[in-house]
C-alpha cells in the first residue's frame, strides 16, 4: 500500500538536483530517565484511573503460529525462547515499509550508485531504520500498552510474563542507542558537516516516545497519533535515505508529509484489534471514537484518496506514465480492501496487511 506510492514518487523525484545541504537528521524518540537499576519508563501506570486488568500467568496453550510469533503479529504461538520473544517484541512485520522508504529516498536523491560503498551505506541505513529504531518503537509501545494487551492479547510476551519488565527496558535502551550510533556512523561515512541523519533519528525517536508514553501519549488521540505514526513510517526513512546520498529539500519534505495522510489510514488498520482494551482504558482510537463501521471507511478513504491525489499531482507535473503506474498499483489494493478489510476489519486486519 504505502510502498506503491513510494516507488512511483521515488522515480518521479530522482532527477531533482539540489546543492548539498550541510544538515543531518533521522528517526527515533525518547525521554526516558534512569534510576540506578532500571529506567523509569513509567507508564504513569497507564495514566488511567480505571481498574487495571490482571494479565494471566500463561497465554492460552497450544494454538498459535510460530511464523506469526517471529513476525510479531496476532495469532502468535506461546514461546519460551528469550531471543525469539525479543524478536517478537520488535515486530519484524513492521520493518519493510521503513526499509522501502530508505530505498525510495536514496533513489530520489539522484546520487545513489550501484557500487559496494553506496550499497553498504544503504544497508546500514535500513538496519538503523528497521530492526533498531522501528524495533525500539515497537518494544516501547508494547511496554506502555501492557495493560491494554492484558485485555486484548493476554498471550503477548509482557502481559503473559514470558519476559520481565526489566528485560524489556534493557532491550529498549539497546535498540535506541544502537540505532542512534548507526545514525552517527552514517553521517561520518557520508562526510556530512552537519549530523542530518543523527538528528532525524533522534527526532524520530522522540516522536516514538511521546506517541506511546504519558503524559502526551499521542496515540490517545486517533487523528494526531495515527498521523504521527504514518509520518514516522513514510517520511522519516525517506528523509534519511535522501539525506544520506544527497540533499533533503523542502518540496520533498512537504510531499512526503502529505503522503503520510495515507500512513494515517494504514495506522488505523492496527487499531481494530485493540478496540476492547482501548475502550476500557479510555484511549480514543478512531474505531473507539467513531465505531468500527465508520472507522473502516475513514481508513480506506485516507489511503486511497491520498494515493489517487498524488497520481493526479504526477499527471499535472507532466509525468503521465508515473501516474498510470501508481493507479495500476492502487487497483489491487482497493480489491483487497473490499475482499477482506471492509467485510470485517477485526477478523481480516492481518490478512489485509499481508496483501
From TrEMBL:
InterPro entries: Chl_synth, ChlG, Prenyltransferase_related, UbiA_prenyltransferase, UbiA_sf. It holds the Pfam family UbiA. Residues 45-64 are annotated as: Disordered. Keywords: Chlorophyll biosynthesis, Chloroplast, Membrane, Plastid, Transferase, Transit peptide, Transmembrane, Transmembrane helix. The keyword Transcription regulation does not apply. The chain crosses the membrane at residues 172-190, 196-211, 223-240, 252-273, 321-342. It catalyses: phytyl diphosphate + chlorophyllide a + H(+) = chlorophyll a + diphosphate. It is a multi-pass membrane protein. GO terms for cellular component: chloroplast membrane. Its EC number is 2.5.1.62. The keyword Transferase applies. It is found in: Plastid, Chloroplast membrane. One of its GO terms (biological process) is chlorophyll biosynthetic process. One of its GO terms (molecular function) is chlorophyll synthetase activity. Belongs to the UbiA prenyltransferase family. Chlorophyll synthase subfamily. This is Chlorophyll synthase, chloroplastic. It comes from Hevea brasiliensis (Para rubber tree).
